[in-house]
Amino acid sequence: QLEFVESGGGSVQSGGSLKLSCTASGFTLEDRDIGWFRQPPTRAREGVSCIGETGTHGVYADSVRARFIISRDDAKKTVYLQMLDLKPEDTGDYYCASAPRGTCRFSPKTYEYYNWGKGTHVSVSS
Predict the structure, then answer these.
(1) Residue 55: which of 72, 42, 38, 69 has the closest Cα?
(2) Which segments of 75-120 does DSSP mark as H helices, in order?
(3) Residues 6+ apart with CB under 8 A from 110
(4) How many angstroms separate the CA atoms of 39 and 51, rounded?
């Protein structure tokens, strides 16, 4: 089955940090842009960040820009999301997914991505 496996979630206090990982299972990252998404409690899934095939640039939602950093290591088939200065509104289930190269030009949209993982939960308390 072609999917991502997310890990690294947990519970932290406001201002804390977490680093999420997303590893591809059954395929490589070649020719793929990768996106991170989150689903807060009682809300729809939303795009957080994406990274292009070359890994030279990341795109961020306004709500996380300057606090989150996306990166990728294709040799390890893994994409990371370093989350700094976490806020209670960052609470939710975090997912990654892939899209054809060239997709990551704006904040990622769920309908453009596929190979979804089962997610990892982040909880930020005030």
Answers:
(1) 72
(2) none
(3) 37, 45, 46, 47, 97
(4) 19
Mean pLDDT score, 75-93: 97
Q: Residue 101 and residue 29: Cα distance in Å, rounded?
A: 10
From residue 111, give the alpha-carbon distance in Å to each of 2, 19, 35, 58, 115: 17, 25, 11, 19, 12
Q: Which of 124, 125, 122, 126 is nearest to 21 (CA)?
A: 122
Pairing of strands 10-13, 120-125: parallel
Rounded-to-integer distance, Cα 61 and Cα 98, Å: 17
Q: What CA–CA distance (Å, rounded) separates 33 from 26?
A: 16
Tell me which of 2 and 92 has the higher pLDDT. Answer: 92
What local confidence, expressed as pLDDT, does residue 88 receive? Answer: 97
Average pLDDT, the chain: 96
The pLDDT tens digits for 37-72 are 999 998 999 999 999 999 888 999 999 999 999 999
